[in-house]
Specification:
mainly alpha, 3 helices
């Protein structure tokens, strides 16, 4: 399902192991996705989040593995995982924005309905 090029270079400025702030950002994203999965009944949202949460977990796991082994093959795998996840996060961000736009539209319709009902009870 991932359409990211396999030969693209790692993200610019990426340091491995992950800098504490970068790792914390991935961990916070993982936690927020888990919280959203636990609290929503919207199937489209759950499906979109379920697609990328394991990938983010893999970034964290491979970062841990690299710290333990300092192995160049683990480094290459981690760089690829981060590149793939970040490309997927852009896709997820677009999906969530699309879903959110529907909420905004629904809010506008509800406001218009409220206006009509307040004028014509």
């Amino acid at each position: 399902m991932n359409t990211v090029s396999q030969n693209a270079p790692p993200p610019a400025g990426l340091t491995i192991p992950l800098a504490p702030a970068v790792r914390a950002a991935y961990q916070e994203l993982y936690d927020k996705i888990q919280s959203a999965i636990d609290s929503t009944m919207d199937l489209a949202t759950v499906q979109a989040l379920n697609q990328w949460q394991p990938q983010i977990d893999q970034v964290l796991t491979q970062d841990d593995e690299y710290k333990l082994s300092q192995n160049t093959s683990v480094l290459a795998a981690l760089q690829k995982q981060i590149k793939d996840v970040n490309a997927g996060l852009v896709e997820l961000q677009n999906q969530i924005s699309s879903i959110a736009s529907h909420f905004a539209m629904a809010g506008e319709i509800i406001a218009a309905i409220d206006k009509v009902l307040s004028l014509v009870p």
